[in-house]
Design a protein that fits this description.
The structure is a single chain. This protein is α/β, with parallel strands linked by helices. The chain has five helices and eight strands. Strand 7 and strand 8 form a beta hairpin. The N and C termini lie far apart (46 Å).
Length: 202
């Protein structure tokens, strides 16, 4: 028994994942570019996201991302996607105890490297990590990410929290899929392939 941990996230062309959904979503460190995702949403984007949630058996979130999604999805009608996400298992990785009101939510209190490793060992299927930049960095350090599904948006932001920040744990990745939406969003999937392999061109 073991689950596969999949990081699905939105990034700008220069790797920023902060505040995609709207102004004020995450303006920490004075980030002024909130809302860079909506102008590029189209039918292809919706199809990709729908397929990701249909494949997932569980959803893993950090505390901030949980609060954002939990304030929205319980009010979404079943026929608009609410049925799947509201009924699926949800996990919140947090260092402090919290009261989770969203249906089918389990709180994982402690260091993510330990609590998520145990979650992977004790469950089957696919666990999707959505957003949650701080959590993703902890998972990267512990080498717990099995796959990345990246939606790369045609915008350069120049600042903000990045998916692979300075000091990220080196890793090798294998490209397993590449496509694009009509709005110019590249959808790239990578599997973790262990440590990087080095060579020389001379």
């Amino acid at each position: 028994m073991a689950s596969r941990l999949v990081v699905s996230t939105f990034v700008s062309l220069d790797g920023v994942m902060q505040g995609p959904g709207g102004p004020g979503e995450d303006d920490s460190n004075g980030f002024p570019h909130g809302g860079w995702l909506p102008p590029h949403v189209d039918e292809g984007f919706g199809r990709i996201m729908g397929e990701q949630f249909e494949r997932a058996d569980g959803l893993l979130l950090g505390r901030r991302s949980y609060d954002i999604l939990a304030s929205h999805w319980p009010h979404v009608p079943d026929e608009e996607g609410g049925a799947k996400i509201n009924s699926m298992a949800k996990y919140v990785a947090t260092r402090k105890p919290m009261n989770a009101q969203w249906r089918n939510t389990q709180v994982l209190v402690g260091e993510a490297a330990q609590t998520v490793a145990e979650l992977k060992r004790s469950t089957d299927g696919e666990i999707l990590v959505q957003g949650s930049g701080d959590l993703i960095r902890s998972l990267q350090e512990a080498e717990l990410v099995d796959e990345y599904r990246l939606l790369v948006f045609p915008v350069v932001l120049g600042q903000g929290k990045r998916l692979f920040a300075e000091g990220a744990t080196p890793a090798g990745l294998k490209l397993t899929g590449a496509t694009a939406t009509d709005a110019g969003v590249a959808y790239l999937t990578y599997e973790w392939a262990g440590k990087p392999v080095y060579g020389s061109v001379v």
